[in-house]
Amino acid sequence: MNPSSRGPERLEGVTAIILAAGVGSRMQSQVPKVLHHLLGRPMAGWVVAAASEAFAATSVVVLSPATAGLAELLGGSASVAEQPKPLGTADAVRCALAALPASAKELLIACGDTPLITAALMREVVVARRETNAPIALAAFDADDPTGYGRVIESSDGSAECVVEERDASEEQRAIGTVNAGLYAVDRAWLVDALGSITPSKASGELYLTELIAAAHAAGTPAPIVYGPEIELEGVNDRHQFANVAAALRERINEGHLDRGVALIDPTTAWIDVQVQIAADAVIEPGVTLLGGTSIGARTRVGSGSRIEATSIGEDCIVRSSAIEGSSIASHVDVGPFAHIRPGCTIAANCHVGNFAELKATSLAAGAKVGHHSYLGDTEVGERANIGAGTITANYNGVQKHKTIIGADAFTGVGTLIVAPAGIGIGAKTGAGTVVLADIPDGCTAVGVPARIIREA
Ligand code: UD1
Ligand code: MG
0.90 cut: is pTM over it? Predict the structure, then answer.
């Protein structure tokens, strides 16, 4: 299941505001919390994706100067409002108001640090508010460990009386396990008024959005509570919660691959970004990482320890414990173990890339073989050419990079060194240890240092 492509029709008439201006100091990181990468998206990107699935209108994400980098990572999937200083969640919502379209009468407010949230739950909170006609509704859950969350104080009729933040809570209130998820549906006109009445917290000086719950209760229109599962509502404030949430997203993504017929040998150790596509009957061994826009064809086996990023791999390939980035690999190719295919490589059908081979911006035509311990950079290799163990293209002379062309059916001996732009002709051969400084013509055999032709075509 791709978490961003399921569920019923998108609800009309609701605009989501996603709060992502806080730095998240409890993460102990130089990187603002909401930008931390989680299985192919920044943390807040998961919340934006859920809102895009839930609602027809474009969401508004609140950013601060510290988190402004998120805008580019979201790539236009949401519009942006600025909160100049992180003065609290109520201030963040106030900053979003100016960026809302006039047509947005109903709002859904979510926190950018709750990446497990689903579109279904977002819609449920909206519906709960509509049905009760209350100005605000909130989502809550019973936390295994409520530490750090606002506690929800429930009235006898099941609505919310108020939310008390941990730092303001009494011992007795801290013992409450029902916590605020940070997910609210709210009427815009009421919100604009109610925000004006929030005063800074005595404990932190921040303006708490959670004060809205007490305001609704005081006005005799208390907020209905929608209970959700912790697995959809866990917030990320520190590295422990980040690790929990990452594991939950991994499980969600991997369940989808299993449903579609991918053989994930150990779904608990395969880390697969949300954008990755894998065909049925592909086999993913334990400890594999697949990143970005990678695609894996049917019956291809990706071996333990492989890390593959932004690469397409065709059908019936075998990749053993290798690193591959930004490349394209056709069908019936075998790679590794311990090969490194760097960006810009194109590998045609039936090729072999052996142990400890490194390729960079190199193309292999169909049936070419690059054996053990070779380095080919900026090289074109013709069909069926056989690159002997330890063959190196010296593509960089300290100033410029040059290309090397190796013809179809060429054969390089063990330890051949080809100094670019020198190349090897079609069907040409080199002996072991040859140093090629000038082109070897088609069909010739060369040996020695520097290479001399010992057999003409
Ligand atoms: C908040 C809630 C708490 C709830 C918890 C759920 C408040 C006061 N508390 O606490 O009741 O249990 O979420 O996870 O709302 N942000 C801004 N601007 C700010 C401050 C925060 O945009 O000035 C953003 C953050 O980037 C984050 C979200 O709002 O995405 C929540 O802020 P955070 O500081 O994590 O609040 P919590 O302490 O988790
Ligand atoms: Mg939080």
Answer: yes
Which ligand is closest in space to the CA of residue 64?
Answer: 1
For 360: left if phi > 0, alpha if psi spans -120 to 50, otherwise beta; the answer is beta
- Atom of ligand 1 lying closest to residue 114 CA: 14
CB 129 within 8 A of CB 137: yes
Helix (H) or strand (E) holding 38: strand 37-38
Would you say residue 20 has pLDDT above 50?
yes
Measured from the alpha carbon of residue 92, the closest ligand is: 1
Where in the chain are all domains bearing CATH 2.160.10.10? 261-455
Tokens 């709060």 belong to: 19
The ranges of the chain annotated as CATH 3.90.550.10 are: 14-239
Residue located via tokens 């013509």: 441
pLDDT tens digit string along 94-121? 999 999 999 999 999 999 999 999 999 9
Residue nearest to atom 3 of ligand 1 (CA): 150
Amino acid (one-letter) located at 343: P
Q: pLDDT tens digit string along 153-189? A: 999 999 999 999 999 999 999 999 999 999 999 999 9
- Looking at domain 261-455, its CATH class is mainly beta
pLDDT band of 23, cuts 50, 70, 90: confident
Is 402 among the residues known to form the active site?
A: no
Pocket of ligand 1 (CB under 6 A): 19-22, 34, 62, 83, 86-89, 91-92, 111-114, 149-150, 163, 165, 179-182, 208-210, 235, 237
The CATH code that applies to domain 14-239 is 3.90.550.10
Give residues whose Cβ lies within 5 Å of ion ligand 2. 113, 235, 237
**Separation of alpha carbons 70 and 63, rounded Å:** 8
